[in-house]
Prior knowledge:
Elements (H helix, E strand, L loop, with lengths): L1 E2 L5 H14 L7 H10 L4 E3 L1 H6 L4 E2 L3 E15 L5 E4 L5 E6 L6 E2 L4 E6 L1 H32 L5 H27 L4 H5 L6 E5 L4 E6 L6 E2 L6 E4 L5 E7 L11 E6 L2 E13 L9 E8 L11 E17 L4 E3 L2 E10 L4 E15 L2 E6 L8 E3 L3 H16 L1
Antiparallel strand pairs: 1-18, 2-20, 3-22, 4-13, 4-17, 5-12, 6-8, 6-11, 7-10, 8-9, 10-12, 13-16, 14-15, 14-17, 15-16, 17-21, 18-19, 19-20, 19-22, 20-21
Amino acid sequence: xxxxxxxxxxxxxxxxxxxxxxxxxxxxxxxxxxxxxxxxxxxxxxxxxxxxxxxxxxxxxxxxxxxxxxxxxxxxxxxxxxxxxxxxxxxxxxxxxxxxxxxxxxxxxxxxxxxxxxxxxxxxxxxxxxxxxxxxxxxxxxxxxxxxxxxxxxxxxxxxxxxxxxxxxxxxxxxxxxxxxxxxxxxxxxxxxxxxxxxxxxxxxxxxxxxxxxxxxxxxxxxxxxxxxxxxxxxxxxxxxxxxxxxxxxxxxxxxxxxxxxxxxxxxxxxxxxxxxxxxxxxxxxxxxxxxxxxxxxxxxxxxxxxxxxxxxxxxxxxxxxxxxxxxxxxxxxxxxxxxxxxxxxxxxxxxxxxxxxxxxxxxxxxxxxxxxxxxxxxxxxxxxxxxxxxxxx
Length: 394
């Protein structure tokens, strides 16, 4: 036998022993007491003193908006747009490192300065190529006119054209490299050579890691800095196959993180996966949440409930519902004012949604709106009724 709440059982049973132990049945009333136990086999009778001592609560069945939900768990993650791995586009040495882990940086802010002879070579080659291109461009224009007038041979024109277009492509490639290095090409063209270049932040965010030191040579494949911005953190939950048809975009998720169990949070589903994971048979979903305070961090474990709907149903507190085997019962209450007694009759029900301390009840028989029911001590009432039945059989 299983109950929703049996925390008061020991106290109540002890109270029953005290009450009946202090009030012995006189010999001439033994037959009457025996008849009473026999007739009460299918319900429980409490005297006014017992009713008050047990703290019984009786009322009609209320209706309450109950939320259907699906259990879920997962972790907090960052979308790709909120993460950045900073690398260099050319092999170079670190002249200085301007940030440390935990620093907040703005997009475009300098993280480090680089130097290397190849940087200078790139700029001088660009300057030389630009000058050569100017000469070839003029030669190409002159040969084009001569060729149009049939003064120049076609072979000469084709050669100067090829040289011109080849050099133009070289200049454009060098210009693209300078732009990647944030070097001002116009100043380089005018003769200014940069000895160092700045490595800048591609996004706003916090420095998560610094993987370089002064003087170190870094290759283009190395990640030098990692930047994250946690204001766009979201929850990555999993839902199993049996529940996936209940979940959709726009639903609310009530969740908590393990490191902050006292704080209940909310998120909104904005994406539901379309493929099951082969191992867990679960679908991934993503939920947007508010992290303006910055207390949530990537990697935190989260568990919660996805609210799948809300409806008004008949409910009772958990302590008013008891399970006997595979069946659930509540107790209808009737007051007998003349004797001061309260009679409690078990009524079989089915249970539905559970929300905090409330349980949806689905009576198997029609009930009137003014019927009274016990709101607590259902386990004790069932135990007393079964004890009476056992004594009757013996």
